[in-house]
Amino acid sequence: MQLQLREGRVTWKQGWEIVGDKRCYFKSRWEFRYAQYLEFMKKHNKIVDWQYEPKTFYFEGIKRGTTNYKPDFLVTFPSGNSEWFEVKGFMDSKSKTKIKRMAKYHPNEKLNIVDKFWFTTNSPLLKKVIKNW
User: Fold this and answer.
1) Mean pLDDT over all residues of the chain?
2) Can you tell me whether residue 25 is helix, strand or coil?
3) What is the rounded distance in angstroms from the CA atom of residue 70 to the CA atom of residue 53?
């Protein structure tokens, strides 16, 4: 969903989008773009598949504050291994807590952070190969 601003500028807010054969409610433009990247990787047989927010992890024994966490993407690789990916524009204290607790309470789950550095590094090339990047 795009929102028109004054002076012809456009910004992207959360909303439903279709990527590949999946219809997802993305919470940011970066999540949407990362899904486009994953779909590109799938079409080129670099990954088997991706899912958007398929699972919530709970932190047993935590009574207050952050008691659960739902990573953005689960990616399955040709090797059969799966890894989680979290898209973060900025790291607030709640996000830091979720990531630390994920490592502590679910140490067998691999979590990768996709941040501004990833987008800055990869966007110039991805603009050339992914439509509407």
Assistant:
1) 92
2) strand
3) 6
